[in-house]
Specification:
mainly beta; Methylamine Dehydrogenase, Chain H; 3 domains; four-stranded antiparallel β-sheet
Length: 788
């Protein structure tokens, strides 16, 4: 076999095809085409999705046949310590785990069992396929809130699954669920945290009903009368080790169980969070300690978090080949040889700081991410344990994910929106819903603007609470000056000049009780009109300093909004303002600001099943983004994301966690790479991207390219003609000049499905692509090689 460069192959292919068309020898044609197919050894893939998950927080670890597999919140990874290969398994691989709570590796069948908090059982096979087993979710008649899977235990070709209601059995011979055991008092549910077998008994550690056991050989384990309580109390775990049963009680003491009695072995100074054994060791994990005992219950290894410079917090531990693997909350897996605590290494794939990415922004060099969650109802940063002090992330293909830790961002808290300078996206601002406004110059944080450094009329903290400055949305005007909002203040609109001078604008003329109002988003249109989304009672506010004019778009006769609480704003390529509220969508022509004192928004009426209805009627819209073809990506609360046509009349895609690699239907933010068309979705359970085709239009036709090229028989996607000018005319003909496709570009890319105007797939051959700009002056020609 020999290999040739892809570009060289294309040139050779074109010359060979000319030879094919010139000869009348059918057998020779067939032979040459086969040669072309055989020589094309480079790969063409149709992988449209990519995951960008965090692997810092380890939920469980397991022995993977001499290696170690680790589970994060919603993904797996493992490292082959012989080859040093680091492999991830995510939603893009069909692995949709959501919140993982336990894993187990079955070595004979080479299966990874994964359980989550809802009772979903995922089985990852050696060939990469994933089986979803919904038996617990769909068939166990208990409330969904108590279906969490806590532990797997294999015995006699069965997997015993500890859950928050009892025990479920999974049969390895049939790969299906079997019996369910409720062993609480009077057959009630009880939370089982761990299972062990020491013949002739099976043991269950329960949260409130002690250690319970039954004869493992019994055919009636689904009868609660078969289960006896050995010890009362809250037990955190139970194991079978060296022909004995050991447990951890509520006082964090390890006990040896002997029928109805127990003997305390040792008591741990911290809460025990993981208790397990291998063939040779008992392992106990607390937040700051790992203890390892040998078969004689002698302590042979004790590691404290303070022995590592990063002082990690521990979650779980296992031992493989005399190496200790400790799961941590922020650093992945910490590996330590059992006999040498000084040799320490963190193992984790490169990824963002957290899975719950709050806001993203794609610049030319980096993808930026923040994690500053606030209350989705009233934008209060004192939410979910906040206001949070999280770092920021930047990502590039060259360097991967890099962390900007708290000192680098001046210890700003609750970081939110990233607003790029359209003239130089290396300079930008980041809002903080607690600390003010952070300025970046050349991708480096330079100053945090707050009430101490913004002149004689400084940024105003909340009028009801003077220790916070809540900045969210913002935008640059045509002069390069930056406008932004501060919530719960009278002077809630601010302009920061290029020279650093700050001016604050009193919103009282256009906003009802501005000291009670918050602003989820803000945009500046091509006329320098500022559009503010509000959440309380003011709908959308428009302001232009040129004539000091305010316009409000509200419900009813004051603007036709479906609801006052507006969350999303987007300005499309026709300067239309798309408004997303918590109860629907509206569109406004922004030029109406200058001609109308009361702007009326319009709904989009579509036909569905022959019935006229409003697009996204009564839906909670969380974000709207416009791609290079003027199409709209619209995310809905707990309903995934839609791509609709420029006018909203047609739905192109509807992605959910069930039909796509989206890890969650709750999308916090969307952003688009205008050059490549890649669309990024930041969800509360991870960041993924879809390789879209709508790119920003180019200024000329100098860099037009076609991909994939050549098109091989197994390729099932569309051919893309990219780097076009807007409204460029694209015609594709066969080698004899017969037209097979024609379109006009919207943005920088068009797609061809390799059919003759949609009627049939075109034959093998060379196809000519004739491209002309809208004015007809600039033209270019490309070629596509198709092999069927």
């Amino acid at each position: 076999m020999f290999f040739i460069h892809e570009k060289s192959f294309i040139y050779v292919s074109l010359y060979l095809y000319k030879f094919i068309t010139a000869t009348q020898n059918k057998m020779l044609k067939k032979t040459v085409l086969l040669l072309l197919f055989s020589c094309a050894t480079f790969a063409q893939t149709n992988q449209l999705w990519q995951s960008y998950f965090s692997y810092n927080n380890i939920k469980d670890v397991a022995n993977l046949g001499g290696n170690v597999v680790a589970a994060t919140e919603n993904a797996l990874f493992y490292k082959n310590f012989i080859t040093n290969e680091l492999k991830t398994i995510t939603t893009v691989d069909g692995f949709k785990a959501e919140n993982i709570t336990a894993i187990y590796y079955q070595p004979t069948l080479k299966l990874i069992f994964v359980g989550n908090e809802k009772g979903m059982l995922l089985i990852h096979k050696a060939d990469g396929t994933v089986l979803q087993k919904r038996g617990i979710i769909d068939e166990v008649p208990v409330p969904p809130s108590i279906k969490q899977i806590n532990h797997f235990y294999e015995y006699n070709n069965k997997i015993y699954i500890a859950t928050n209601y009892g025990i479920s059995v999974f049969k390895l011979d049939t790969m299906e669920f079997g019996e369910t055991y409720y062993m609480g008092p009077n057959g009630n549910t009880t939370k089982v945290l761990q299972i062990a077998v020491k013949e002739p008994y099976i043991y269950a550690a329960t949260e409130y009903n002690g250690i319970r056991r039954a004869l493992i050989s019994s055919q009636f384990l689904d009868d609660y009368n078969q289960w006896n309580q050995l010890l009362g109390d809250y037990f955190k775990g139970v194991i079978s080790f060296a022909n004995e049963i050991y447990c951890i009680n509520s006082s964090n003491a390890m006990e040896r169980v002997n029928n109805m009695t127990n003997t305390v072995i040792t008591t741990f100074p911290e809460n025990v969070i993981d208790f397990r054994n291998t063939e040779d060791y008992v392992i106990v994990t607390t937040q700051n300690h790992v203890y390892v005992y040998n078969t004689s219950l002698v302590l042979v290894f004790h590691f404290q978090s303070t022995q590592n410079p990063k002082n990690p917090k521990f979650t779980c531990t296992t031992i493989v080949n005399n190496t200790v693997y400790i799961g941590t909350t922020t650093q992945g897996i910490l590996t330590i040889p059992l006999n040498n605590s000084s040799q320490q290494e963190f193992v984790l794939p490169n990824g963002p700081f957290r899975n719950s990415v709050f806001r993203i922004k794609k610049a030319s060099k980096y993808l930026w991410a923040t994690y500053g969650t606030y209350d989705p109802v009233d934008y209060n940063p004192y939410y979910d344990g906040g206001p949070h002090s999280y770092p920021m992330n930047k990502y590039s293909k060259e360097a991967g994910w890099e962390l900007l830790d708290l000192p680098e961002i001046f210890n700003a808290r609750c970081m939110t929106r990233i607003i790029l300078n359209p003239k130089n996206d290396n300079d930008f601002f980041v809002g903080s819903s607690f600390s003010g406004l952070l300025k970046f110059v050349n991708n480096t944080p330079t100053i945090l603007y707050d009430d101490t450094n913004t002149g004689s009329d400084p940024l105003q903290p909340l009028e009801s609470n003077g220790d916070q400055i809540r900045v969210n949305g913002g935008g640059y005007d045509s002069n390069g000056d930056f406008w932004f909002t501060t919530s719960l203040t009278t002077k809630g609109l601010n302009i920061l000049k290029k020279n650093g001078q700050l001016t604050r604008i009193d919103l009282t003329p256009g906003v009802s009780e501005p000291y009670y109002e918050q602003y989820p988003n803000m945009l500046v249109d091509k006329n320098n009109t500022k559009w503010l989304a509000s959440y309380r009672s003011n709908g959308v506010i428009g302001y232009n300093e040129k004539n000091n004019k305010f316009v409000s778009i509200k419900m009813g006769t004051e603007g036709n909004l479906p609801f006052q609480d507006t969350r999303a704003l987007a300005i499309d390529n026709k300067n239309q303002l798309w408004i997303g509220t918590i109860r629907g969508l509206r569109v406004v022509q922004t030029d109406a600001f200058f001609s109308d004192d009361q702007i009326q928004s319009k709904s989009i009426i579509i036909l569905e099943n022959g019935q006229a209805q409003e697009l996204f009627y009564d839906q909670f819209i969380t974000d709207i983004e416009v791609d290079g073809a003027n199409r709209k990506w619209v995310s809905l609360a707990d309903a995934g994301v839609y791509l609709v046509s420029p006018d909203g009349q047609n739905t192109i895609y509807h992605f959910t966690k069930d039909n796509s690699p989206l890890p969650s239907n709750n999308i916090n933010d969307i952003d688009i790479d205008g050059v490549t068309g890649e669309v990024f979705f930041a969800t509360d359970k991870g960041l993924v991207s879809f390789k879209g085709t709508a790119t920003k239009a180019s200024d000329n036709l100098n860099n037009v390219f076609v991909y994939p090229n050549p098109v091989r028989p197994e390729f099932t996607g569309t051919v893309k003609i990219a780097a076009l000018t807007n409204k460029a005319n694209v015609k594709i003909t066969d080698i004899e000049g017969n037209l097979v496709f024609e379109t006009t570009s919207e943005g920088g890319t068009v797609e061809w499905d390799t059919t003759a105007f949609g009627s049939y797939k075109v034959a093998s051959g060379v196809y000519m692509v004739f491209i002309s700009a809208e004015d007809g002056i600039e033209t270019t020609v490309k070629k596509i090689m198709i092999v069927r």
